[in-house]
Write a structure and sequence with these properties.
Layout: H1 14-25, E1 39-42, H2 48-53, E2 56-60, H3 65-70, E3 73-75, H4 83-116, H5 120-123, H6 129-148
Length: 161
């Protein structure tokens, strides 16, 4: 996601805010196909309709319950500068999910045939059933260890601790 024109607007009633979100999204919003994806950050009752209309609604955690319930993402602190951090965490998590899926498929596509004895006639490779069962936990172990590497994710420098 690339942030384009960002114009902060405050203390606006719901109707102009929704109109702004629709206008930024482009002319084809009526057909539910956005020309531009729109993210809206808000915290109040007046922001809830625009949060619902935007492609990605981001609520400030200290905002009203309606805004928090309507949004797709809720920031736990009252700092809108956490939006880039949330984006980085989301991308990092998606990348880890894909990696874990790849590890699990790769490991299991190799380990299952070995455990089933498919390679015994060809190269004489076979595992005893208890060793094969124990080795299947290796897939879970690899996925868990890879997921722990998400802690090393570099967050944007503008985010305070």
């Amino acid at each position: 996601m690339r942030i384009g024109s960002m114009t902060p607007q405050a203390d606006r009633p719901p109707s102009p805010t929704v109109t702004t979100v629709l206008h930024v999204g482009g002319p084809s919003w009526a057909s539910e196909k956005a020309v531009v994806e729109v993210a809206m950050v808000g915290d109040g009752v007046n922001d809830a309709p625009a949060l619902a209309q935007a492609d990605l609604g981001i609520a400030i955690g200290t905002g009203t319950d309606l805004a928090v319930e309507t949004a797709d993402v809720v920031l736990m602190r009252s700092d809108p500068l956490d939006v880039p951090a949330a984006q980085a965490i989301g991308r990092g998590t998606l990348r880890k999910m894909r990696q874990n899926l790849g590890w699990a498929i790769g490991y299991n596509s190799l380990a299952l045939p070995i455990a089933a004895g498919v390679f015994e006639p060809v190269i004489g490779l076979v595992l005893r059933p208890e060793i094969a069962a124990l080795s299947m936990s290796g897939s879970s172990f690899l996925v868990a260890m890879n997921a722990l590497l998400l802690r090393r994710l570099k967050l944007p420098a503008s985010i305070g601790g």
